[in-house]
Amino acid sequence: MNLFGSTPSDVEDIEEVTSSGEDQYEGSTKSTHTDSIPPVSSNRAEKKGKSSSKPKRFCKFNKEWIKNPQYTSFLQEYRSDSSLAHCSICKSNFSIANGGLYLINRHREQENHKRLAVIAAETISRSIFDFVHPPSQLIAMTAAEITLVYHGVRHGHSYISQSCTAKVSKKLFHDSVIAKDISCGRTKAREIAVNVLGKYAFIFHAEILTNCSGAPYFNSKITEAVNQTRFFSLSFDASNKGHKKMFPFVINYFTIDRGIVRSVMEVIEQPNETADGIVASLREVLTMNNIDIMNMTSIGADNTNVNFGRYHSVFALLQSNFPNLKKGNCFSHVLNNSVKISHQCLAVDVESSLSKLYGHFSSSAKRVEHLKEYFDFVEQDQRLLLQHIKIRWLSLYPSIERLLKVYEPLSAYFLDMGDHDEFTCPPIIAEFLTSTEAKCTLYFLHNLLFDIQKKALELQRHYVSIVDLNRIVSSLRVKLDERLKQNYFGYQTRVLLNSMIESERDKLTQSFFEYISTMLAYIEKYYSEQKELAELAAIFGVCDLDRITFHQIEQCIDFLKMDIDRDRLFDEVSLLRSTWKEVISYREPLDLQIQQHIKNNVNHVPEKLDNDLWNESEDDDNLFHKPTTNNCDKEMEIRSDQFWAFLLARSKPMCIEMHKIVSYVFSIPCSNAFVEGVFSHMKNAWTASRNLMANETIAAELKIRLNSHMKCEDFFSFIQSQPELIKAAR
After folding, report:
1. What angle in degrees, to the nearest 10, is found between the helix axes of 407-415 and 396-405?
2. Residues 170, 188: contact at Cβ < 8 Å?
3. Got the DSSP string for 279-306?
4. Whole-angstrom Cα distance, residue 145 to residue 131?
């Protein structure tokens, strides 16, 4: 049996060289082995003289040699033949028959043996920790990989780009114990995004929803958090991406830690945009996430027949099984459509003229340069015209405002064009710019659409619900009614009307009157369906409990048909009123107390969500031509949902019945703007260069983008405190 797996051919043939150390030789001078050392050459024999004539002795392996520290590392016995020795480093057998220790020492001094010995020594010297990272280092390294993926998804990087970033980081930070071992290729990055961050995308909102000292929250924890609030609504919409029809489903609910929360639950493909197909998908999404459909209060969608038609619609099918289900009409669509429908009452087609003006310059760089030279000549600042798209919200007012800012120099530019100039003025544009009626209509729309734009922006805030609908729509209706009663359409409009002859003035005034009347009628058509609920729920938009009576709360309960313990509710209302009086008696203002409460419960409050109202008010100031007056009303400085969240959290014991009512009313949406925003993110992520992304990949990326607002540097610290996420990423 060959113990070391070597064949006789592996045995080294070594020449015997006699020396003064030959007294160490053992055995006889005869060697019966076929691989014995050959005789020395005649030249060397002459040098050695008589020593070469001494007989050669046969040597056998001595096990005592292995105990010698010089040979322990490599020398082993070859059991099949005692005249051979085995080297564990070289993995070969060599003869010791005619040399014994001399031949062992000779083998040890060979260059190949020395080279292999160095490699073996390095391998043996490495401990297990050289191959297995310490726990803390492994966690930091995995967290770094997840953070790189999170950063890439948040900023719209492709997975090829993320793979390249990881490789570059290893080169740039080669002396870092974390960066040097990062491995995050394209496939791994995609798997982390889909199966770790996407699968557990609700984790970030779950940390906000429950106060459990940073414990990990996965789908089951989110389901538990939603079910604890009991009531929720579901919003959805559809959009085409090539040949695919994508449906995002957004869940809306109220928590005492943050107020209103909206999260992307799923994004699925549904080719059959029918009522039956949408209802089936809706039920599947809720079942997939273990959420009880019996607690659904409303569905939010745009106002199409397939969603809210009288007969075979999504709402009709669901309401047949859940009679208390409420409509969540999108009033952002209502305001936009009211403006679009009312344009047919105007004597001048403003939308077509705006499109013609924009198209004249957008298709030619030479025309833009020529216009720039003209503005420089008249010493005016050039401002590019803004495009108006009929199906896009909020695009008409900015387009009109920009045109009026450059109206005089732009009119002079077109009207100065001659027939022999390089560029000629199109007849439609010339007619529009020379018409006093057109200019008067522009000023009328500019003055009127300011109020529409302001309310449309307010409806698009993520925390607006049915509680705010009555305040928003009623204030708009009052302003429009007042314009009709006073026959007031703006100062500049009045100046231009007075400059016209009576017949033209009356005709234009009548068109303005019909425009506002048509807009009011369209808004009233949809608001009448929600009016009773909106008026009853409006009491929860008041941040002064002295103005809320128990009878008003009971009326809201009766309309919603909620099962509430009235006696207990009365005690809770009294407790909440006492709590409210206590907190307003403090030196610190109530709004600051509420903001501190939100920050204490949310470790990673995004700056843009910290105080949406104030930030959006600043945006309004930058957008509109006149300042807003939102600081006139103290209630507008406090979000009503956060007010009730703060009050319920401060009241001890917990006001269970009141919590049910507040959760119900704040879960009902009045705008589908958040879902529409999902499509904007989808467009940015699903670009032409990434058009091969699977549905589950884009769904995961949208969940990561919209369900988490943590900064990338904060996310690295956060993810290290989530052991289950770290484990899932490995």
Report:
1. 70
2. no
3. HHHHHHHHHHTT--GGGEEEEEE-S-HH
4. 19
Q: If you ran DSSP here, which 8-state letter would residue 12 be given?
A: B
**Per-residue tokens: 77:** 């016995």
Concatenated DSSP letters for 365-377? HHHHHHHHHHHHH
What is the Cα–Cα distance from 376 to 404, expressed in whole angstroms? 18
- Structure-block tokens of residue 703: 């969940």
Q: Which residue has the tokens 């703007």?
A: 673
421-452: per-residue pLDDT in tens? 667 888 888 889 999 999 999 999 999 999 99
Buried b (16+ CB within 10 A) or exposed e, 484-503: eeeeebbebbbebbeebeee
Report the alpha-carbon distance of residue 380 to residue 412 in Å, rounded.
12
Under 8 Å between Cβ of 606 and 204: no
Report residue 503 CA to chain centroid gap. Answer: 58
Q: In this structure, which amino acid lies at residue 242?
A: G
Q: How far, in whole angstroms, is CA 639 from its chain's centroid?
A: 25
Q: Which residue has the tokens 């009211």?
A: 338
- Residue 634 is predicted with a pLDDT of 40
pLDDT computed for residue 643 by the predictor: 94
What are the helix (H) ranges across 542-589?
550-560, 566-584
User: In the prediction, which pLDDT does 4 show?
Assistant: 41
Q: Are 444 and 511 spatial neighbours (Cβ–Cβ below 8 Å)? A: no
Instruction: Give the DSSP per-residue string, 31-61.
Output: --STTPPPPPPHHHHHHHGGGGGSPPPP---
CA-to-CA distance for 452 and 520, rounded, in angstroms?
11
Whose tokens are 């009052």? That residue is 478
The two structure tokens encoding residue 237: 């919409």
Instruction: Quote the pLDDT of residue 420.
Output: 62
Burial 276-301 (b: 16+ CB within 10 A, else e): ebbbebbeebbeebebebebbbbbbb
> 261: closest CA among 204, 330, 203, 209?
209
| Alpha helix ranges (H) inside 422-490 | 427-434, 436-459, 466-486
Three-state DSSP class for 625? coil
CB of 75 closer than 8 Å to CB of 117: no
Rounded to whole angstroms, the Cα distance separating 490 from 478 reads: 16
Three-class secondary structure of residue 266 per DSSP: strand
SS3 85: strand
**Burial of 22 (C-beta count, 10 Å sphere; 0-12/13-18/19+):** middle
CA 308 to chain centre: 30
Q: What pLDDT score does 718 carry?
A: 84
What is the C-alpha separation between 296 and 275, in angstroms, rounded? Answer: 18
Tell me if 198 sits within 8 A of 728, measured CB to CB: no
Q: How far is CA 145 from the centre of its chain?
A: 17
Q: How many CB atoms are closer than 10 A to CB 204?
A: 21
In the chain, domain spans: 65-123, 133-228+687-729, 334-539
- What is the rounded distance in angstroms from the CA atom of residue 192 to the CA atom of residue 573? 48
Length of the chain as a residue count: 730
Which residues lie below 8 Å from residue 168, measured CB to CB, with a gap of 6+?
A: none
Return the SS3 of 142: helix
How far, in Å, CA of 108 to CA of 94, rounded?
11
Structure tokens at 421: 């100039």
Strand partners, 298: 233, 326
Residues of the chain with pLDDT under 70: 1-57, 124-135, 199-225, 391, 419-422, 602-636
Query: Are the beta carbons of 199 and 219 closer than 8 angstroms?
Result: yes
**10 Å Cβ neighbour count for 27?**
15
Cis peptide before 653 (omega within 30 of 0): yes
Which pLDDT score, from 0 to 100, does residue 485 have? 93
DSSP 3-state of 92: strand
